[in-house]
Amino acid sequence: MAPATAPSPGAAAPSPGGVGGRWQVHNVPNGPWTFEFAVKGVALTGMIQQRSDSATPISISAGKVAGPTLSFKVLSPDGERIIVFNGRINTDEISFVRQIIPIDGGTRGGNDLFGGSAPLQFIATRSR
Question: Reduced to 3 states, what is the DSSP secondary structure of residue 115?
Fold first, then answer.
């Protein structure tokens, strides 16, 4: 039996359960942006929301976790586009990249969590 070796710093991938919980992004249009995740196996469920005090949460779909990466989709509140989120978790941060896909006749949206004019790359931090 080979001896166990300790992973190098920063190399250990968090378990899929490490993604579960509440995450927030500040200093963004209509912020904070809030992400609430639950993980069962490799399935990721949850919701996203902007302006946590007044906006309606939007359920995520096609969510999955694979090691330190996660992905999911949402339909914009106006039904004009699909937003694809891909993220990489590193302890208490998730680096996200968003892709905006207009549905036939739809627009790229405005300057918010569901639009193409807001940051397409951002970092969410674990909310305690």
Answer: coil
pTM of the model: 0.84
Q: Is residue 10 part of a domain?
A: no
Torsion angle of C-alpha atoms 97, 27, 33, 66, degrees rounded to 10: 30
Q: What dihedral do alpha carbons 40, 45, 46, 48 form, nearest 10°?
A: 140
Rounded Cα distance, 25 and 6, in Å: 32
For position 70, which CATH number holds?
Answer: 2.40.128.30
The amino acid occupying position 114 is F
| Percentage of the chain modeled with pLDDT above 90 | 80
Question: How many separate domains does the chain show?
Answer: 1
Place of tokens 């790359």: 121
Q: Structural domain of residue 20, as residue ranges?
A: 16-126
Question: Could you tell me how far CA 82 lies from the centroid of its own chain?
Answer: 14
In angstroms, the CA 111 to CA 67 distance is 31
